[in-house]
Design brief:
By secondary structure, the protein is an alpha+beta fold. The protein is built from 6 helices and 5 strands.
């Protein structure tokens, strides 16, 4: 089948897609977007988290055919290079990135939390990140990153307004788009 969807704000088409292959496979191998990671293939680790029509999902559990005509935002769509989202900048600034494998999913999850709850409490942060596993850290620097991003976006009226509940697509949630380092 031909898969047509919007990815990171751009209409994309991919031919010869088997409707049952994972959205993660299509994003990484057919669209050359390696940010979302393939770790567990069971929706348990959160490394492949992306937005699908504005809701975070584990891309490894979404059949590619389910993305037909829908909006997908990957960690690459949140910001890149000098135009990082506040969540991405906070992860870098606090040293919350170690091996980097879990980082894209954590960044998307943190971004989603801050869209819904601009000033989260520590228990709210922990609950929002509970579906994301990291084997390198003790999570404290990750929590520091989310706290810093919340403080940064709350101090930024444009970012806070977007994060607080924009009805638009997730990539409009803050300056520079949504959040997350997009690397391999």
């Amino acid at each position: 089948m031909r898969l047509t969807c919007t990815v990171n704000g751009q209409r994309r088409e991919v031919d010869d897609v088997w409707p049952g292959e994972s959205l993660l496979f299509v994003l990484r191998d057919r669209m050359s977007l390696p940010g979302s990671k393939n770790a567990c293939e069971q929706g348990e680790c959160g490394s492949c988290t992306v937005y699908l029509d504005g809701l975070p999902v584990c891309a490894c559990l979404v059949a590619a055919g389910q993305a037909e005509g829908r909006d997908v935002v990957t960690v690459e769509g949140l910001g890149t290079g000098a135009d990082l989202d506040p969540v991405q900048r906070a992860f870098v600034r606090t040293g919350a990135v170690q091996c980097g494998f879990c980082t894209p999913g954590l960044v998307v999850a943190a971004h989603d939390l801050l869209r819904r709850t601009p000033r989260p409490t520590d228990p709210e942060i922990r609950e929002a990140l509970a579906g994301n596993l990291c084997r390198c850290t003790g999570y404290e620097k990750i929590l520091d990153a989310v706290r810093l991003a919340a403080a940064t976006t709350s101090a930024d009226p444009v970012g806070a307004a977007g994060a607080a509940g924009s009805n638009g697509p997730p990539w409009t949630a803050g300056p520079g788009g949504t959040a997350g380092p997009g690397g391999s």
